[in-house]
Amino acid sequence: MIEIIPSINEKTWKEVARKIRRVEPFVTWVHLDVADGTFTPNILWNNPFDLYHLPTDLKFEIHMMEDDPEVHLPAWLMPNVKRIIVHYETTTAIQHIIDECHAHRTEVALAIADPTSWTVLKPWRYKVDMLQVLSVPAGSAGQHFRSHNLSKIKHLRAYLPDGKIEVDGGMNPETAREAIRAGANVIVAASHIFNHKDIPQALAELHGDR
After folding, report:
1. In angstroms, rounded to a whole number, what is the distance separating the alpha carbons of residues 132 and 151?
2. Can you name the residues that pair with 115 across neighbouring β-strands?
3. What InterPro entries does the record tag this protein with (predicted)?
4. How many domains does the chain have?
5. Which of 52, 103, 104, 128 is most buried when burial is the number of CB atoms within 10 A of its CB?
6. Are 2 and 208 in contact (CB under 8 A)?
């Protein structure tokens, strides 16, 4: 089963909330990028208390693009956050993060940035709930997919035949199709969805239905 998740990458809560409302009728999950400028060249909205008070039935995955995510992790462990994504490159406390998330019945995904070898994920593939390949430089939305990441996806799928592999970055109907063929089963997209005049159609295009 292929899942398409809209990604929101914004500097202010006002814009984050506006985009949440745009996709809310059409999806189950929303991907929220948070960044404090330690791992990325830019700062994005990163206040968990805004999300805590948002009335919604959506499930959120929080992509923590920041160094030492274990420091801020507890604030994100709230009822409507169902998955935390942390980067291998940003922490030495991966097992602690896994334990904390699972103690709160929250899924955890381990991500690698564009330059990082897929092999670092091998020891963790059965300890986390999902693996993520970030296929653009960490930071802003609207970047172009870097095709060398397809080989990472293929290798990871060979080592994880039945698990979730998410691809984030530069996803449009063509690149999503390539990622799915390589073995991805969760596609995260921002620009193609939010720049489209018809969100259900955008989701269908990414899924390969149109």
Report:
1. 13
2. none
3. Aldolase_TIM (IPR013785), Ribul_P_3_epim-like (IPR000056), RibuloseP-bd_barrel (IPR011060)
4. 1
5. 128
6. yes
